[in-house]
Amino acid sequence: MSTMREMAAECRAEADALETRLEQKRAAHAPRRELELLESMLRELRVREHVLGAYYDAPRASSITMSCAYAPKRARSGDG
Question: How many helices (H) and strands (E) does the chain have?
């Protein structure tokens, strides 16, 4: 299994390839809808790359914690 930083690098490589393809499509005067779809895909890849690359560095909200979670009470075999 890959680490978060390795996955971010993979996303970066995919985004670079997609950006090259987008430039080729623009030069070839591709239909507007196709260009919009590729731009949307590129934005999503860039966001995913950022989230994966900064996952361990990003500050966490103190309200998101499991310190006050309780385990469910389980019935024991002798409790009837």
Answer: 2, 0
Tens of each residue's pLDDT in the chain, 80 residues: 678 888 889 999 999 999 999 999 999 999 999 999 999 999 999 999 988 888 777 777 766 666 666 767 777 776 55
Assigned token pair, 51: 């989230």
Burial level of 37, CB count in 10 A (0-12/13-18/19+)?
Answer: middle
Number of alpha carbons in the 13 Å side-chain half-sphere of residue 5: 2
- The pTM of the whole model exceeds 0.90: no
- Size of the chain in residues: 80
Q: Which two tokens stand for residue 21?
A: 């393809």
